């Protein structure tokens, strides 16, 4: 980059924050009289040194196997999907709909045709990553081509956990500091759909790269254009007649019940988090209600159009593939 470019862009980030500050002030000025305003980010930001490819690591450690001719099949599939995409056929949307409405058989067929799955020797694979920092066991009786006997599930889980904690970056630094089983992190009726192991805390300067696409030969790759990465500490700002001055530390799961409390809305008792009473200048009354009664009364009701809009937005942000 030449000196003229440096002069042109050196204040770009600061300019963006100034613009955001201006827009926030405009929003606050337009609020209804007496309304509270909350601004928050779901994560913070920091530097990024490496992209980490968990499926490459799993392959090197012997948990994941590639089948002979798999890469050629992947190439042919990508060509077919490329032709369909150019013709205006949204293949990702078709696979999403197949998984959602087609029943278990069609859902498994859609997964088999993904760019990721077509490359794998499932009969000799015991674990895989289909996401970012979460690993599934290729469990017999649950996965379409499961290879791990249920009696070996706990052994494979613990072996994986110990090896993940031992991972080091090219400079010899420890990468992962906490790995949890899903039943230690989640509760409720959908736990069975979660990954078996989750990397819960790690060096925030590495990015566990999404694993649906190509599986490179190296576990660690320089971050390249991704000079920044998410960090766990974000921003929470409350402003209005009910908020007190001063800092606080909140968890993201506390935001929803706190918002409900400020609006006087009943809070379903099956959610995580608490009401952040310490951020207010007076006691805020809270009303907890049984989750079943909350939903029966129309709380959290959605329609198909809203679901599609949410899915499209998440896909645009890269959270759905």
Question: What does this protein look like?
Answer:
The model is unreliable at 103-113 (pLDDT under 50). This protein has 321 residues and is an alpha+beta fold. It has helices at residues 3-9, 12-29, 54-60, 70-86, 91-101, 103-112, 153-165, 182-185, 255-263, 291-296, 304-316; strands at residues 37-40, 44-47, 50-52, 127-128, 134-137, 176-181, 197-202, 206-208, 220-222, 228-231, 236-239, 267-268, 288-289. It has eleven helices and 13 strands. α5 (91-101) packs antiparallel against α6. A four-stranded antiparallel sheet has the order 4-5-7-6. A three-stranded mixed sheet has the order 8-3-9, with no helix packed on it. Strands 1-11 form a two-stranded antiparallel ribbon.
Element layout with pairings:
Elements: H1 3-9, H2 12-29, E1 37-40, E2 44-47, E3 50-52, H3 54-60, H4 70-86, H5 91-101, H6 103-112, E4 127-128, E5 134-137, H7 153-165, E6 176-181, H8 182-185, E7 197-202, E8 206-208, E9 220-222, E10 228-231, E11 236-239, H9 255-263, E12 267-268, E13 288-289, H10 291-296, H11 304-316
Parallel strand pairs: 3-8, 12-13
Antiparallel strand pairs: 1-11, 2-10, 3-9, 4-5, 5-7, 6-7
Helix pairs in contact: 5-6
């Amino acid at each position: 980059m030449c000196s003229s470019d440096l002069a042109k862009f050196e204040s770009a980030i600061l300019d963006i924050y100034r613009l955001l500050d201006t827009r926030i002030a405009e929003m606050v000025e337009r609020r209804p009289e007496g309304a509270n305003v909350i601004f928050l980010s779901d994560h913070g930001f920091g530097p990024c040194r490496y992209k980490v490819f968990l499926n490459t690591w799993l392959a090197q450690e012997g948990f994941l196997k590639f089948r002979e001719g798999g890469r050629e099949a992947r190439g042919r599939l990508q060509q077919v999907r490329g032709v369909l995409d150019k013709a205006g056929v949204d293949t990702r949307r078709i696979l999403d709909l197949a998984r959602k409405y087609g029943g278990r058989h069609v859902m498994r067929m859609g997964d088999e045709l993904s760019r990721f799955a077509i490359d794998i020797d499932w009969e000799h694979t015991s674990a895989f990553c289909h996401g970012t920092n979460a690993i599934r066991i290729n469990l017999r009786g649950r996965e379409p081509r499961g290879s791990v006997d249920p009696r070996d599930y706990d052994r494979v889980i613990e072996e994986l956990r110990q090896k993940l904690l031992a991972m080091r970056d090219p400079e010899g630094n420890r990468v992962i500091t906490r790995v949890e089983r899903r039943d230690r992190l989640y509760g409720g009726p959908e736990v069975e759909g979660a990954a078996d192991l989750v990397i819960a805390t790690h060096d925030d300067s590495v990015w566990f790269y999404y694993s649906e696409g190509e599986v490179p030969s190296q576990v660690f790759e320089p971050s390249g254009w991704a000079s920044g990465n998410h960090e766990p500490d974000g921003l929470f700002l409350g402003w209005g007649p009910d908020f007190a001055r001063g800092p606080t530390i909140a968890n993201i799961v506390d935001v929803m019940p706190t918002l409900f409390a400020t609006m006087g809305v009943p809070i379903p008792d099956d959610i995580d988090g608490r009401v952040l009473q310490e951020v207010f200048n007076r006691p805020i009354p809270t009303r907890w209600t049984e989750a079943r009664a909350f939903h029966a009364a129309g709380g959290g009701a959605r329609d198909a159009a809203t679901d599609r809009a949410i899915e499209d937005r998440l896909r645009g942000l890269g959270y759905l593939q």
